[in-house]
Amino acid sequence: MHIKESTGLFALANLAAPAVGLSFTCQPGQSCWPSLQQWDAFNKTVSGRLKAPVMLGSPCFPSSKDYNKDVCAEVLGQYGNGTFRETTFGSTQFTQWESCGAENCYPGLVQPQASTCSLGRISPLYVDALEPSDISATIAFAKQHNIRIVLKNTGHDYLGRSAAANTLGLRTHSMKNMTFASSFSAKNCSAASNKKNIGIIGAGVTAEDAIAFFNNHGMMITMGACHTVGIAGGYGQSAGHGPLGPSKGLMVDQAVEFDVITADGVFRTINECNDPDLFWAMRGGGGQSYAVLVNYKFQVYPQTKWATWLFNATITPPSSNVTENTVLRDVLTGMSTDQESWSKAGVAGYNNILPESLTFLEILPADGDPLTTLKNLTAKFNTLLTTHPGINVISSTYQQFDSETDFFIGQNTFYTPNTAVGLSSSVPSRLITVDNFESSEKIDTLVTSILNGLEAARVQLGEALASGANVFLLKTAPFNTPDAANATSTHPAWRKTLWHLVYGVSYEPGTPDSTANLMMSGARAAIDKIQAPLSVQAAYMNEADPAEPDWQNLFFGENYGTLLAIKKKWDPDTVLNCYKCVGYLGDQDPMYSCYGSNPKASVEYPFN
Ligand SMILES: Cc1cc2nc3c(=O)[nH]c(=O)nc-3n(C[C@H](O)[C@H](O)[C@H](O)COP(=O)(O)OP(=O)(O)OC[C@H]3O[C@@H](n4cnc5c(N)ncnc54)[C@H](O)[C@@H]3O)c2cc1C
Ligand SMILES: *[C@@H]1O[C@H](CO)[C@@H](O)[C@H](O)[C@H]1NC(C)=O
Ligand SMILES: *[C@@H]1O[C@H](CO)[C@@H](O)[C@H](O)[C@H]1NC(C)=O
Ligand SMILES: *[C@@H]1O[C@H](CO)[C@@H](O)[C@H](O)[C@H]1NC(C)=O
Ligand SMILES: *[C@@H]1O[C@H](CO)[C@@H](O)[C@H](O)[C@H]1NC(C)=O
Ligand SMILES: *[C@@H]1O[C@H](CO)[C@@H](O)[C@H](O)[C@H]1NC(C)=O
Ligand SMILES: *[C@@H]1O[C@H](CO)[C@@H](O)[C@H](O)[C@H]1NC(C)=O
Ligand SMILES: *[C@@H]1O[C@H](CO)[C@@H](O)[C@H](O)[C@H]1NC(C)=O
Ligand SMILES: *[C@@H]1O[C@H](CO)[C@@H](O)[C@H](O)[C@H]1NC(C)=O
Question: How is the chain split into domains, by residue range?
């Protein structure tokens, strides 16, 4: 019922009244919406780069003009391939952000597909920007016609911020320039000049592109866990944590200069000396909020060796009640006790904990002999795991790789399942700061809260789904790079963090809402228990629950007020906006309708 109503005339009639007190609210069907002639004229100002998206799943819909069985077979085969997904504007990495209410273009992996492929949240038109002038022209057109723009790079955003229905898309993903500068001088800025080993990347460059390019110059980069993420986009403007976090810091720590287009359409090169407030805000204050980033210039590092310890085991749980799972308690207590010394030594890690299994990867990138150091640091914990009667070891392997590239390829079996896309996913989370580890009493409280969280999730989920209860610890925080001068605007709690704790939920597109909602309530029940004893409440804005109520404090901490003032200075009309970003306009803004109970999916070009 809803599906039909919101694609047809009924939806257009509903949209006829413009929202009061908000700008850039013009919607298809309203008299303010540009005519086809105006779109054509605009297309010429962006060198023909205005495009109507083809939805990824549309070749699978007999009712679609794109219907094609062979192409559909390829789409189904590549549905979980992040690189494949990001080549298409008509997709997002996580499928729920392609949908709007009940409308979607899911190719029928779980349930029979809907009768029509809908654009859902995907913009009906987008500019595939190649040149800075494309961005300026798009901003000017959006301002002239009172249309909201949405910036999209790879579409990895966990809060769905790179897709918004009935907006004009501005795609940055095709801007893929890359340069290596062995010496670099920041523009008109002696303080930031005479730097060595600076990478310069366009807004659309992914980790995969950059790892390969800089490796050819003998350099490694502060990448994350997923090679298809756009490192200059949401990653590099919010934090950007990865295996080099404990030794080199976050991606934002590496930034030396940006080229940007501000909301007035002007191209600016910004750094510590030129527009330092804007530069600061874009070093951690979030994407799509202050300006459009064109080029990201950042510190890269000579390749080192990478030592790893991969551990994989099942658990014989003494009780189905996780609160009474003494095996997990022993493991979490042992790990927590050693954690600060590991982090101080530059060890990063990813630990997947389920009531009945453990998969751990500990990583030490360093010159010299990191393998011996890693073995030494983890010896006590290794003995605990390998001699524990409740743990059934599948494998426990130390290895050393010659470069970041070899490490990433070598640990593919670990990363692949932990970075799955082409499904719906959400990651309620908290940053766990060092004070929670400072005494055995604190560790006991932390461990108990995690076990209580897992148990609360299992109770919510019920027997059929309980085995999915999990906690993922990302030990990638910039613990050894304090940022004493506040050069970045990322949440200050990152500097005191030892674990970025995530309760991940994922399900196939088309899973019944009742099941999806149950899984989300399981995750939220777990986070409620885990966050209860924490003295610092903080979460990584890029990997968090979109429903967090206190998001200003949680995502930005004490920086929120300053960031908002800078946003208002550089973007006084709110040309840029996104969900629970600095200056978020609230659910009543039409661009957010798909998050709410009155969803209005995108109307297809040519809007009739
Ligand atoms: C599988 C997976 C693994 C991940 N692993 C990590 C990890 O290890 N470490 C980590 O830190 N994060 C990780 N992330 C989170 C990642 O940082 C965010 O999803 C991030 O938002 C991706 O940025 P993007 O530009 O690629 O994505 P998009 O969804 O395209 O954009 C994200 C946000 O940035 C804005 N934006 C994009 N380009 C620009 C631009 N040029 N100028 C201004 N704003 C822009 C968009 O409007 C949007 O609001 C992971 C995400 C996924 C899906
Ligand atoms: C914009 O112009 C290009 C080149 O002429 C054309 O291929 C494209 O279809 C046009 N876009 C739209 C939406 O008409
Ligand atoms: C993923 O997709 C990309 C882009 O289409 C393609 O080049 C690559 O081969 C695909 N990977 C796999 C494993 O099929
Ligand atoms: C990319 O590099 C080319 C060649 O130097 C240049 O013409 C173009 O403007 C650059 N693009 C961006 C977005 O900087
Ligand atoms: C150069 O930098 C100084 C501050 O270091 C600033 O006052 C001046 O406006 C800058 N000039 C240009 C052309 O950007
Ligand atoms: C799990 O164990 C705890 C502690 O023994 C107990 O308080 C709780 O009621 C148990 N939960 C269930 C569902 O039995
Ligand atoms: C680790 O190194 C320290 C200092 O060199 C040494 O005292 C200790 O015995 C080593 N521990 C193990 C388990 O090898
Ligand atoms: C861990 O072991 C399981 C069961 O054998 C296997 O399926 C999985 O791939 C292993 N994980 C890693 C990262 O080796
Ligand atoms: C950095 O910010 C903190 C508050 O987050 C403040 O206490 C401190 O004085 C600031 N330091 C500098 C050098 O501005």
Answer: 36-170+577-595, 178-303, 304-402, 424-555
Mean of all residue pLDDT scores within the chain: 95
Query: Which CATH topology does 304-402 take?
Result: Alpha-Beta Plaits (3.30.70)
User: For residue 189, how far is its CA from the centre of ligand 5 (angstroms)?
Assistant: 8
Question: What DSSP letter does each residue of 26-70 carry, written as one string?
Answer: --TTSTTSPPHHHHHHHHHHTTT-EE---BTTGGG-TTSTT--HH
pLDDT surpassing 50 at residue 581: yes
- Give the residue ranges of DSSP H helices in 471-604: 513-531, 551-556, 560-570
How confident is the model at residue 14, as a pLDDT? 39
CB atoms within 10 A of CB 75: 22
In CATH, which of 3.30.465.10, 1.10.10.10, 3.90.226.10, 1.10.357.10 is domain 178-303? 3.30.465.10
- The pair of three-digit structure tokens given for residue 438, joined into one six-digit string: 């400072």
Q: Within a 10 A sphere around the Cβ of 244, how many other Cβ atoms?
A: 28
**Residues 6+ positions from 520 with CB-CB distance below 8 Å:** 426, 505
Q: What CA–CA distance (Å, rounded) separates 216 from 239? A: 25
Is the minimum distance from the CB of 202 to ligand 4 under 6 angstroms? yes
| Tens digits of residue pLDDT in 35-82 | 999 999 999 999 999 999 999 999 999 999 999 999 999 999 999 999
Integer Cα distance of 526 and 418 in angstroms = 19
Any idea of the CA torsion for 383, 389, 392, 397, to the nearest 10 degrees?
A: 10
pTM attached to this predicted model: 0.96
Q: Is the pLDDT of residue 24 over 80?
A: yes
Choose one of 308, 359, 363 to mutate for the ligand 8 pocket test, by most ligand atoms within 8 angstroms of C-beta: 359
pLDDT of residue 13: 37
Is the Cβ–Cβ distance between 5 and 600 less than 8 Å? no
Which of 56, 76, 81 is the best mutation target for the ligand 3 pocket, counting ligand atoms within 8 Å of the beta carbon and taking the most? 81
Which strand (E) or helix (H) includes residue 402?
none
* Close Cβ partners of 32 (under 8 Å, ≥ 6 residues apart): 18, 26, 145, 146
With vertex at residue 459, the alpha carbon angle to CA 458 and CA 465, rounded to the nearest 5 degrees, is 45
* pLDDT on residue 21: 61
Q: Domain 36-170+577-595 - what CATH class? A: alpha beta
pLDDT digits (tens, 9 = 90+) for 562-578: 999 999 999 999 999 99
Percent of the chain topping pLDDT 70: 97
Alpha carbon of 333 to those of 440, 443, 446: distances in Å?
9, 7, 9
Q: Please, which residues bridge with residue 49 across strands?
A: none
Residue 238 pLDDT > 60: yes
Residue bearing the CA closest to ligand 1, atom 53: 156
CB of 379 closer than 6 angstroms to any ligand 7 atom: yes
Does the pLDDT of residue 230 top 50, yes or no?
yes
CA distances from 229 to 76, 225, 301, 469 (A): 21, 9, 20, 26
- Report the pLDDT value the prediction gives residue 110, as an integer from 0 to 100: 78
